[in-house]
Every structure is written in structure tokens, then in C-alpha cells.
Design brief:
mainly alpha, 4 helices, 83% helix
Amino acid sequence: MAWVLLTLAGLFEIGWAIGLKYTQGFTKLWPSVLTVLSMAVSLALLGLSLRTLPVGTAYAVWTGIGAVGTVILGIVLFGEPATAARLACVGLIVAGIVGLKVFGG
């Protein structure tokens, strides 16, 4: 169950990271409200997952999910570059997340 909570926390991290772009410096009310709510949910779920997962593993996986998802959505939503080198680096992050899941707790 802790891994499910951690995965959800990572997905909400993607939500707030992407949401920051839509807040336009927190000048847009509803995007700002949704972004702050997503931040709170993400941190709460991370905290719940830490009841049983090692903090280093959980934090690395949480930020990894957020980073990978944010890069992918940046490419899809904002036309950010999808170079081979960039995608290879994202692949390394994914490999690290998998490795931590398999070997990290």
C-alpha cells in the first residue's frame, strides 16, 4: 500500500509542477488554488508512505516520478525539446526509480 501512496504522491507532484506554469506566477486564481491543493495532497501522501518506506528511497522515487512526468508533459503540453540525449537522461531516472523499487525497500 505504501508504494501505491508513493506513486499517487508522485503523480500529484507532476500536477503541481505543471500547475505552476499555469498559475503565471500565482496571478491566476484557480490554477493557483489547484496547484497549492496538489502540493498539499502530494506531501500528505508522501508522508503516509514514509510510515513504512525508507525516507531516502521514498524521496528519490517521489522526485523521480515528478521529474519524469514533468519532462514528458513539458514536451507534450509546451513543446519543450525531446532530444535523444534528454530522453536518454529521463530513461536513466526511470531506471533509478525501478532500481529503488526492486532493491531499495
